[in-house]
């Protein structure tokens, strides 16, 4: 990095590795000119590299609950991934019912993780109503985690070759009720975002991403599809 002459309105600010703005362990040095960010230097790796080192001293089964903690808001997807790596290495076949249970568990985590993101964005943009509504809806999905495996966040549910337990007798009914309720509540949240000038004005045209950026930075998920890239990993590379 070359030093350049900066005027009084420009400065470098270090944010992280733990900062109220960031929702994960990483350091970000940003150069600001008034309220505008003109440059940034990210430094990642505070979490995953330490986790990989810890795995060297543990048995396969002890890695699963550790994987949950890589991202507490979508814990089952991480422990599922850890199990899949071991299953492929050991050529272990997973029963079909267990595959379905894993997918259901992953989708529950995915939805409540997106709601956690929306709540965090609402807070960062100064719209606490979005924050409260998103967390309210997230609670119903966390309750499904409890009904499935007895834990809200770090579930320790997937196992090498399957899952820890079958679903309870009323889980299917509770899950369908949650989906039906959420279909209605989702539109309320969408309208709340679209009709909020605070929300729209502060994100519209900010952080514009092109198709080229998607390839260069490895962007996935909704951000990638929002650029017009027709790729969904659940469809093109399914869970099981």
Describe the protein's architecture and organization.
With 240 residues, the protein is mainly α. The protein has three domains: 10-43, no CATH class; 59-206, Cytochrome-c3 Hydrogenase, chain B (Orthogonal Bundle), CATH 1.10.645; 208-240, no CATH class. It contains ten helices and five strands. The chain has helices spanning 48-55, 60-68, 75-90, 96-124, 128-149, 171-194, 197-203, 211-217, 221-225, 233-236; strands at residues 10-15, 27-33, 36-43, 158-159, 162-163. The strands form two sheets. Strands 1-2-3 form a three-stranded antiparallel sheet, with no helix packed on it. A hairpin with a 2-residue loop joins strand 4 and strand 5. The longest helix has 29 residues, at 96-124. The chain is globular. The mean pLDDT is 85.
Label this structure with key terms.
single chain, 240 residues, mainly alpha, Cytochrome-c3 Hydrogenase, chain B, three-stranded antiparallel β-sheet, two-stranded antiparallel sheet, 10 helices, 5 strands, globular
Please give a quick description of this structure.
The chain folds into three domains: 10-43, no CATH class; 59-206, Orthogonal Bundle (Cytochrome-c3 Hydrogenase, chain B), CATH 1.10.645; 208-240, no CATH class. Helix content is 55%, strand content 10%. It is built from ten helices and five strands, in the order βββαααααββααααα.
